[in-house]
Amino acid sequence: MKLIYNQTFLSKNNDYISYDITDESNVHIGTAEGSGNKYGDFVSIIKIFNPEFYNMGLGLQFFKKVFDFINIHHPIYVIKASWHKGGEFKDFKNGMSSNLLIFKQNLQKFTPTQSAVSTPTGRWAAKIGFTNCEIITNTDDEVIVHFTR
Fold first, then answer.
1. What φ, ψ does residue 44 adopt, rounded to 5°?
2. How would residue 132 be classed by pLDDT, with cut points 50, 70 and 90?
3. What is the spatial distance between Cα 19 and Cα 2, in angstroms, rounded to a whole number?
4. Which of 64, 96, 103, 144 could form a disulfide with 137 if both were Cys (CB 3.0 to 4.6 A apart)?
5. Between the CA atoms of 7, 142, 104 and 137, what dihedral angle is there, to the nearest 10 degrees?
6. How many CA atoms lie within 13 A of 129 on its CB side?
7. Whole-angstrom distance, CA of residue 79 vs CA of residue 87
8. DSSP string spanning the chain?
9. How confident is the model at residue 89 (pLDDT cuts 50, 70, 90)?
10. Direct distance between the N- and C-terminal alpha carbons of the chain, in angstroms, rounded to an integer
11. Which residues 6+ apart lie within 8 Å of 23 measured at CB?
12. pLDDT of residue 146
């Protein structure tokens, strides 16, 4: 499958980029956003809307696309993950981000750190060398995690 990345926004100083992603038949798959700063922080929002495209490894591809762009312009030292309920995720399964859902489910059998690294973002971070994990916040509604090398 060929992915088409339609850039929807690029900031003047290349610290934020976003894409709307379709396949070659113009079927909407999802969106990818990434932002960085002079301190080396990176934040991304990856959304796959169409369930037909779940579990195909596309999330990692979307993540790498925005990560690689930001990293060229603003070297990344910390991947900052913020997983929460409601808001932009109100229409997702259980009204929360998939990362938060997986994190909460895995707490039944893993430590918080093990649960964080088992999420999609945790796995993607590890694949690009960010294998250290620090839980910053862990509440019912939000989990904040920093991944470093």
1. -135, 155
2. very high
3. 15
4. 144
5. 110
6. 5
7. 22
8. --EEEEEEEE-TTSSEEEEEEEETT--EEEEEEEEE-TT-EEEEEEEE--GGGTTSSHHHHHHHHHHHHHHHHS---EEEEEEEBSGGGTTSGGGB-HHHHHHHHHTTTS-HHHHHHTSHHHHHHHHTT--EEEEEEE-SSEEEEEEE-
9. confident
10. 32
11. 1, 2, 3, 4, 29
12. 98
Is residue 100 within 8 Å of 81, Cβ to Cβ? no
Q: How many CB atoms lie within 10 A of CB 81?
A: 26
- Burial bucket for residue 142 (CB in 10 Å: 0-12, 13-18, 19+): middle
- Nearest CA to 99 out of 82, 87, 86 is that of 82
**Alpha carbon of residue 101 to chain centroid:** 14
User: Any bridge partners for residue 41, and if so which?
Assistant: 78
Q: Are 80 and 144 in contact (CB under 8 A)?
A: yes
Task: Specify the length of the chain in residues.
Answer: 149
Distance, CA of 134 to CA of 117 (rounded, Å): 10
